[in-house]
Specification:
By secondary structure, the protein is α+β, with helices and mostly antiparallel strands. Helices cover about 20% and strands about 30% of the residues. A hairpin with a 5-residue loop joins strand 8 and strand 9. The chain starts with about 20 loop residues before the first helix and ends in a 5-residue tail after the last helix. The structure holds zinc ion (ZN).
Length: about 160
Amino acid sequence: MDIIRYGNPILRKKAEPVEEITDELRAFIHELIQMALHPNAVGIAAPQVGVSKAIFVIAPPLFEKGQIIKKEAKVYINPKLSNPSKETQTEEEGCLSVPGVRGNVTRPVSITVSAIDIHGNPFQETLTGYPARVLMHENDHINGVLFIDRLSPFDRKRLTPYLP
Ligand code: ZN
């Protein structure tokens, strides 16, 4: 599967909810997991490979003393976000679909997500810090939003020449 780049209208569409988790869909999700586990990735959403469905995978690495000690993928189907913390944090983000561009994005520090897993089981969890940021970035893809839409006005101006 190839990564869809900025400029492709699929990245701007609101993704369709998943109605049924078929074997075919499960195979597709396993491919997404493999892509998310790639050392250069921290997550991937289905629209990024041209599939406009409400599915994403996050795999933020866990660091200890500058070394990655763990990188596990987690699947979210039909995610619904709630309870964003009032406290926000500004960090640099990039995106596989917007290669070569990184910029500062302000997001809530923590967020609650309800979703279903690859077996069709519903779950809810609250994420904080970097995993929460990755989750919100990937969830944006489901809604046709890219991190460049959320750049500070300064970074937006600075990066505009690099956006095709
Ligand atoms: Zn992205």
